[in-house]
Amino acid sequence: MTTETLQQKPSPLNTTAYRIFKILQWLHCGPLSVEDLNQRFLADPLIKKTLSADSMWLYMNTLRMLGCKISRPTPTNGFRHELIQHPFGLYLTQSDVNTLVSAKIFAEKSFTYQEMLTLDRLFKRLLEQSIIPNKEEQLERLFSHSRSLDYEAQRQIIQRLEAVVDSQNLLRIVYESPVKGCETFFLLPEGLIYRRGAIYLHGHREEQEELSLLRVDRIIAFEQVTDRPDVLQGLQASQGQLPLVIIRFYGLNAQDFVPFGLGESVAPVLAPKELAESASDVSLRTRDFFSLRQILLERGLPFDVLRPVAFKQVMLETLVGMNELYDDPHE
Amino acid sequence: MTPMSDIDVLSQEGTGADKSNYSTSAYRVLYILLLLVQNRSLGLLELNLLLFDNPFIRRTYNSETITKYINTLRRVGCDIPPASRKNQFNYTLNQNPLPLDLDESLLVVARKLYSCLLAQPDDELLCQCHQLLEKVDWALSDGQKHQFQFSSLQLPATLQNSELMYQDLNRFRKLCRDALIVVLECRAEEAASSQRVTVEPHRIVQEGVHNYLIGMNCDTHQLVKINLQLIARVSQLPTKVQARGRTVNVLFQLSGRLAKSYRPYPNEELLVSSEQPVLMVRAKTDDCEALVSRLAKYGAYCEVLSPSYVRDLMRERIQLLLSRLMGDGEPDPERFVSRAAALAESELVME
Question: What residues of A are in contact with residue B106 (Cβ under 8 Å)?
């Protein structure tokens, strides 16, 4: 147990440690040359002198021994020392990195793509400024374990897409499809969304009933088109007509319904006598049949599509196709 | 809290350090600072243990020397109050001497994340994020602390004893992972008596504000659900759980666009297949129902191959959905085959 509380006068100082910490503090604010550092030493009331090149080297090496990464002065950096990383920042454990992964997966459910990009920036910065071994690996783990893509390199393209979405102009897009390869088509953009770790541009595409979702990192090029009013008007007309979709869930009370997140409303079926069990009707207006199909298959609750008939047929075809896979069970 | 010293962090790899020529006393002082950044608060004994663990120091120091080192840190601006009875004679670093620099938008998104976490039921994630954000707050400068206002981001009243609750949860989760039979001494909810029960621990679930251990009673072979708060004592037996393994390897196959663009989950392994463009995936899971739900959303692009009971789970799900959608009638696959093939060509599969 220490008797420090009994001491009144200041204890002697370890001057070397004091000087080295000062170097660390100054470099933390920005790159400095040996002359800049010496000017600061001269002005410091506890030092009041300049240091030799040997002392400076010794001090820098001590900081490196502690895990600091300091660039050496070269003509390219103006002969300045730059503190690239240091171990005195945030202390993160492996468990904290796992928390970042879980938080990122969680945030995806309620954050916009812009908020997700900011969250990525925050988490990357925390990792960069933290005391954790193998930062590169941890950063990779953050994205791979949350199954998400790092959009740092696509910042510019996202900003350009945001601008064209606002302008509501027709786009000619060159897109790298994983199956069809490179294709070019017209799209009337509606917005950007974040889903399952990726940012998508959604909009209406020529000759397609469903909402199109294009992964931003697969967009090779795009340009605004002003000389095709025929295409624009056709797409604008279909954009304004969102079909009404009604799904009936069996064995589900309306109050137990977990929202799809597609702007739907839910109501109990008013003629329960015709049904042997409780049922609820969920209605919404959407062209995002892709998401709807995934939601219905993932939830696994018995359902019927009351409207539109075409979507019911698509669901039937999907389920029949799935059923065929299990016709001849593997033993 | 166990004091930490992450020697890997002190690796000089990539820093270009010359290990034969450095100021040893200054190194010790700054290493103490590093230990305080990691642990925030350390007693003399803990500090000496950690100094001894460092291969470049390998010795302990008396309180006078340590006080001199701590005073040096104070003189450079580190906020370390005097060790006294009030702080259990510990050296406590109140603020990070080299604060993090985060712009306002990053602090705003951190606050929003926490607000969203407050509205969801996973207490564990909430507590973990609270601990993490508390670390971030500690590392911020005064000005940014003011912007962040972490003190207003409190845990809900039900989680005020979060440390205890969280550690308790972790302890029981570990018991489940260990897969050893446990003897539990449980208090009856409305009686002073207690009873002993031998259980194969399976998993922890949350319902309302309570956490429960789900397991199998080894005497009755019935599933039991025990409120963790009612468990007074736990002892592990050196006997492995007899039930089927906690983790199941599920093999499934992806086709079409999904096979070309699938991003595996952390517990999945992609297997090389000679049958292009089919992609085989082996998933390790302890929750087959959840996996089947996820795989179902891939539609006819995904087929579960093994084990047979997971394949059966998928088949039953499809048949249940199909029979209801067809109005309880028999499916007529012929009617849909051609359309299904056309659809497979045109569908957008998002993965």
Answer: 118, 121-122, 125
CA distance A7 to A11: 8
The amino acid present at B163, given as its one-letter code, is: E
- Phi, psi (deg, nearest 5) at residue A33: -85, 170
Q: Smallest Cα–Cα separation from A126: which of A92, A82, A79?
A: A92
pLDDT above 70 (res A17): yes
Beta-carbon count within 10 A of B234 CB: 17
Would an 8 Å CB–CB cutoff place A16 in contact with chain B? yes
Tell whether the torsion through CA atoms of B148, B151, B157 and B163 is positive or negative: positive
* Site from B31, B79, B318 to mutate, A interface, most A CB atoms within 10 angstroms: B318
Closest-approach residue (CA) in chain A for B257: A179
Distance CA B241, CA A290 (A): 43
State the Cα–Cα distance between residues B45 and A254, nearest whole angstrom: 62
User: Which positions ≥6 away from B330 have C-beta within 8 Å?
Assistant: none
Cβ pair A11:B6 closer than 8 A: no
Ranges under pLDDT 70 in chain B: 1-14, 121, 155-168, 189-192, 206-210, 242-246, 273-276, 328-351
- Give the phi and the psi of residue B155 in degrees, each rounded to 5: -70, 150
Chain A positions touching B300 (Cβ under 8 A) are: 318, 321-322, 324-325
Contact check, Cβ <8 Å, B17/A5: no
pLDDT in tens, A30-70: 999 999 999 999 999 989 999 999 999 999 999 999 989 99
Which residue, among B238, B275, B285, B256, has the nearest Cα to B351 in the 3D structure? B256
Do B320 and A302 make contact, defined as CB atoms within 8 angstroms? yes
**Which residues of chain A does B18 touch, with a Cβ-Cβ cutoff of 8 Å?**
61, 64
Pairing status of strand B302-306 against strand B268-271:
unpaired
Alpha-helix runs per DSSP H in A190-279: 229-239
Note the pLDDT tens digit of each residue in B149-181.
Answer: 887 877 665 555 555 555 667 778 888 888 888
Q: Give the dihedral sign, CA A254/A255/A261/A263.
A: positive
CB-CB neighbors (< 8 A) of A13 in chain B: 68, 71-72, 75
Tell me, what's the ipTM? Answer: 0.81
Note the Cα B64 to chain centre separation in Å.
Answer: 42
* Cα distance between residue B34 and residue B40, in whole Å: 9
Q: Which chain A residue shows the shortest CA-CA distance from B261?
A: A178
